[in-house]
Structure formats: C-alpha cells, structure tokens
Write the structure tokens for this entry.
Amino acid sequence: MSKLTHLDSQGHAHMVDVGTKDDTQRQATAEAYISMTPETLELITSGGHKKGDVFAVARIAGIQAAKQCSNLIPLCHPLMLTSVKVELTAEPENNRVRIESTCKLRGQTGVEMEALTAASVAALTIYDMCKAVDKGMVIEQTRLLEKQGGKSGHWTAES
C-alpha cells in the first residue's frame, strides 16, 4: 500500500479528509536561497533600488503567498494561519540572500506547504524586482527545515 496520502483506494488523487483529526498546534519552517551578482546584492542592501525596499516587498509577498497556498497547490487544504514570519538575510560572502519562513496554526493539518510557498514566492519576488539588472540570479535549495505538531510529531532536516 502506498504511503502517499493524496491517493484514494483506487489510486486517484484526492484531497485528504482531515475532519476526524484533532486540532493541535502546528508549525513549519522552510528556507530558500537566491544567488546573484555582488552588484545586485549591494543594490538591494544599500536601499538604492529604484523599485524600493526589495526585502520589504519580498516579505509581504511571502506572507501573502502562504495565505493563498490552497489556491496555488492542488489538494492543499485552506488554512487559518495564526502566524507567518518571513526573514531575509543578505549573505555577501556567498553573494546571496537567505529566506526563512515560519508558519503556525492550531488545526487539523500541517503547514509545511505554506512555509515552502512563502520562501519560494519571496525568492521569486526578489528575482522579479531585480531581473532588469541581473537575469542570471538562481533560486536554489528550497527545503523544509522543521515541522512540529500533528500525528507525526517533530521532524528536523539534516544539516
């Protein structure tokens, strides 16, 4: 039997019924990186970008994306998130920006997809805002870092 929960008894994709699961505190943290030229990173961190504060716009985009995850990812449950945090950190030594997103709720299903979506969309927003000066930016290493709560308990990614 498949461990994939989005398949019904006939092997067809479906939205999992979480109606009988207990509400528990749940949290997930994800990260993504976007690499760029040193000049692009300097433009972002110096505040000299003509489009405004790149980090502020990316942060809001990530939060909005987490809230809209069920509209973006098929079979993803619509959730009432209680908290979404998106942190952006310039890493000049690596010519990149690290994005970390954390989503929380009290509910019947986890928030891993919301955290991953927030980090991904924040990275895409940086790309969109800076593509005129650096089309070679690379979004990479998007992954789940940690998940807490629910039936499967606590999980942490290996370093």
Remarks:
- The two ends are 31 Å apart (CA to CA).
- The longest strand covers residues 24-35.
- The CA atoms of residues 76 and 143 lie 17 Å apart.
- The mean pLDDT is 89.
